[in-house]
Amino acid sequence: MESRTHTADATPGDHVTVAGWVHEIRDLGGIAFLIVRDGSGKIQVKFEKDERDDDLVETALDVQRESVIKVIGDVEEEDRAPTGVEIVPEEVEVISPADPELPLDPSGKVDAELSTRLDNRTLDLRKEEVKAIFEIRAEMLRSVREAFRSLDCTEINTPKIVATGTEGGTELFPITYFGREAFMNQSPQLFKQLMIGSGLERVFEIGPIFRAEEHNTPRHLNEATSIDFESAFIDESGAMDACEEIVRAAYEGVEANCQKELEALGLAEEFAAPEEEFPRISYEEAIERINATGELDEQLVWGDDLSTEAERALGEEVGQHYFITEWPSEIKPFYIKDNDDDEQLSTGFDLMHPRLELVSGGQREHRYEHLIEGFEQQGLEPEAFEYYTKMFRYGMPPHAGWGLGAERLVMTMLGLDNIREAVIFPRDRQRLSP
Ligand code: AMO
User: Fold this and answer.
1) What are the tens digits of pLDDT across the range 145-188?
2) CA of residue 219 to ligand 1 center, whole Å
């Protein structure tokens, strides 16, 4: 196709070819307008019936909304047009016609259920406010990558088809791998740790994780995107510093580069990167504060995990991002190191948004004997993980890291009600296509 001008760049005096979707058709009798939309914006095309060719006017009036068309013509200034300019056409071509019945209305005048939207994501992403979410997600990922690079991290990609799980046996998706049992990976956990003993020392990965969670909730996906970090020679406190820096960079990137998208979402006024340092609250203090809110039916006791209600009660009170540190060892995975002074306590931490958990992390157990003991305590067979444990016998530095859910970050950043809004094609209990 010959070169085209983006509608946003059409300037009075230009002779242009624009191509895009028919957003709206208005026939006012003697005059008709088409609004053409492309990735950059929209532009009005004017058809004064007396002055234009009959065929041209007929093509314009017969076209169905959302068809793809090409328009060649002159750009003129017009104060009454939505963008202050319009095209006076000399040629209109319907490149790809749309059916008159659309499964959803991309102009957004008629609301659609989330499931209808997800079934027809192509049309759904023609809406400015939906497209904005994914432009923001892309900018968030770009900023995060850049921030990792400035922290001297190397980006890695690790296998998603694996022999063992890491995050609890019940949440694995089994597959067959040339007749052998294999699984979709739940986390790059073991691979990123293996890189710590390599020459890389400090790595990050942005990639899919698979969780066979049975529950269908507004905050869980069966395939999510994890932003993982791991570094040699730091402890959990250093890992929290890096985590805070990355989350802040994500917000700052969006604030600096996505004003148009934030406006489309009605968030331009209120959106702000977090300024205050993220407080670090111990697990013990967290359960005391949750109990003191009186929001829960039953008081929490030491060793309990935090329910959704508990997280919400504390989040409301803290009112900003915060870490929960020093979790009980028994509820953290085998790879998390215990506190040196009290083995009931772990070095594990979570980063919380007032609405929900965003990150888990901690210092790792790098001492071979302790690692093997940890497997046994959790009822796991260390032999199955030999490819991993073995490398702890050949010089493994102390290290720490974390995993951040990309969709949860977008969801909380933009105040989305449902995590599915932050994924183009979500995978959940019911949804396997598109
Ligand atoms: P965890 O299992 O807590 O930790 O996962 C880390 C973060 O990933 C996101 N996440 C999810 N998001 C949507 N749907 C899900 N089903 C889902 N599961 C997890 C969350 C969560 O906080 N290996 C450790 C990380 C580490 O220690 O480095 C891990 O995977 O935002």
Assistant:
1) 999 999 999 999 999 999 887 776 568 999 999 999 999 999 99
2) 11
**227, 408, 411: which to mutate for ligand 1, most atoms within 8 A of CB?**
408
- In 3D space, the residue among 189, 187, 186, 184 whose CA is nearest the CA of residue 365 turns out to be 189
The domains located in the chain, with CATH, are 7-96 (2.40.50.140), 122-279+320-422 (3.30.930.10)
- The pTM of this model reads 0.96
**Best substitution site from 184, 209, 428 to test ligand 1's pocket, by max atoms within 8 Å of Cβ?**
209
Ligand 1 residue neighbourhood (C-beta within 6 Å)? 167, 187, 189, 211, 213, 220-221, 224, 226, 228, 357-362, 401-403, 405, 407-408
Q: How far is the CA of 112 from the centre of ligand 1 (A)?
A: 30
With b for 16 or more beta-carbon neighbours within 10 A and e for fewer, the 90-128 pattern comes to: eebebeeebeeeeebebbeeeebeeeebbbbbebbbbbb
Share of residues in the chain with pLDDT > 90 (%) = 92
At which residue do the structure tokens 């939906």 appear?
A: 130
